């Protein structure tokens, strides 16, 4: 009976972890430090910033750009989330960078323009594809890479516990490439949710799966099942909402977004988004974080373990 009560208690706590993490992060999205380019002199940006800050302190960070071309380049390079051109009465967004973000930006700036009695036309310069009109495919796609990465680590240790380092690394690499190719084919060719960059999507998908597989294998080697359980807990119920999920990191509590910046799930989602929709822009940080996790896993796989067996000491007979 005690074991049954313990099982019920354990699954209840697990459910509460999921609920607290997802609902705590996503239930009340509010923007913070959303970067906006303003075409015009710095005085114009400062005036708009003062108006916005009075209504929503800290929600937006405005940066002046001398011309529309450089501001649009910043949008394409993921340096800003929108471009405001006050003199032309235009706002340029990129919904491919985040449906929620572009919607909130549009609502706020249109309301501000309406309050001043000026029209504001909106242009979506980098729209979402028809196969992902809601902008949620990328995050769930990454989940479809993380779970196989963890699973291949667990199953390999179960089926072939004595497999050497070279064999284990080779198997992880092959599995990552197969998983990445299969998922890219489904998302691009079959469903059209992440279209147009098949080779790049295969490469980043395989890299994500390999990084997750390496760190999960390393934890499995060092700590066994509890180690890989920790990885699953860290990457899914914590890592997924800490990335901002379909909302984006700039719309969840800042401390949680900071946690998500160093976990692989959010960076993997950014890498997928940037490869598919932004021609591979802004990949340095995602690849650096994913590479760091892969390196951690590799270190855990090669570091010598302390021997658990102690040699029998000779008995001295006086």
From TrEMBL:
Keywords: Membrane, Transmembrane, Transmembrane helix. The keyword Transmembrane helix applies. The chain crosses the membrane at residues 138-157, 169-186, 198-215, 222-240, 281-303. It comes from the Bacteria. This is Membrane protein. The lineage of its organism: Bacteria, Bacillati, Actinomycetota, Actinomycetes, Streptosporangiales.
């Amino acid at each position: 009976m005690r074991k049954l009560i313990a099982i019920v208690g354990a699954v209840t706590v697990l459910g509460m972890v999921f609920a607290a993490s997802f609902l705590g992060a996503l239930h009340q999205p509010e923007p913070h430090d959303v970067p906006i380019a303003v075409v015009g002199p710095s005085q114009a940006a400062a005036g708009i910033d003062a108006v916005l800050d009075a209504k929503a302190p800290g929600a937006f960070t405005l940066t002046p750009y001398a011309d529309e071309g450089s501001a649009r380049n910043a949008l394409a390079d993921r340096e800003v989330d929108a471009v405001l051109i006050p003199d032309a009465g235009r706002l340029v967004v990129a919904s491919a960078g985040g449906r929620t973000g572009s919607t909130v930006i549009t609502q706020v700036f249109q309301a501000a323009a309406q309050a001043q009695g000026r029209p504001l036309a909106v242009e979506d310069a980098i729209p979402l594809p028809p196969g992902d009109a809601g902008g949620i495919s990328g995050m769930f796609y990454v989940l479809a890479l993380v779970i196989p990465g963890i699973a291949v680590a667990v199953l390999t240790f179960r089926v072939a516990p004595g497999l050497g380092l070279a064999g284990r690394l080779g198997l992880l690499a092959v599995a990552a490439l197969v998983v990445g190719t299969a998922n890219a084919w489904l998302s691009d060719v079959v469903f059209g949710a992440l279209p147009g960059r098949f080779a790049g999507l295969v490469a980043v998908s395989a890299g994500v799966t390999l990084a997750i597989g390496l760190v999960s294998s390393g934890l499995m080697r060092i700590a066994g099942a509890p180690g890989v359980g920790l990885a699953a807990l860290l990457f899914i119920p914590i890592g997924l909402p800490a990335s901002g999920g379909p909302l984006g990191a700039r719309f969840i509590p800042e401390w949680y977004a900071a946690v998500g910046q160093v976990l692989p799930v959010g960076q993997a989602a950014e890498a997928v988004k940037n490869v598919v929709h932004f021609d591979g822009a802004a990949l340095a940080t995602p690849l650096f974080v994913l590479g760091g996790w892969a390196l951690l896993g590799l270190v855990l796989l090669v570091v010598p373990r302390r021997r658990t067996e102690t040699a029998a000491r000779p008995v001295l007979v006086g």
